[in-house]
């Protein structure tokens, strides 16, 4: 019986190409494909894949958050990240989310199939250079809540909207944004978002 795979990728052409490539492998079958993060857990619960290959930058729930939810609700499905964002902070967030592999999109196609097989066997698969960069990089100075607020701000949400989503007051949200700017040594909120994105923290 082949390895059952769920693929989450929002770019239709990329997703179609990956599905076609993976289905050429004798021992791999793509049983579900989704285009946004909100679909990952429901689809996984419906078709119980062995491995979920998830892009980070998805509409709706981002790939890392979805991977963390998947690990809680369907721990037997092993999550792996396929991304163009090879940043140390992003890699650290993936490890915290329980992700078993971190594969860059510019890797050869055969490398993805091999990574899926290794993850299914219980191994971890990480790009060695990325692992070393994560080892050498500094820790995220922001708290979880500051990171969450800054991530929503990065998506263009204003303080009042962020406050509604997180059940906080607008003043508290502004305080979190101010503390993020100070901690990151940024000039303003936009600069804080840029710094945090380049580090892979949001």
From TrEMBL:
The modification 4-aspartylphosphate is found at residue 55. Gene3D superfamilies: 3.40.50.2300. Keywords: DNA-binding, Phosphoprotein. Residues 4-120 form the Response regulatory domain. InterPro entries: CheY-like_superfamily, Sig_transdc_resp-reg_C-effctor, Sig_transdc_resp-reg_receiver, Tscrpt_reg_LuxR_C, WalR-like. Residues 135-200 form the HTH luxR-type domain. It comes from the Bacteria. This is Response regulator transcription factor. It comes from Streptomyces musisoli.
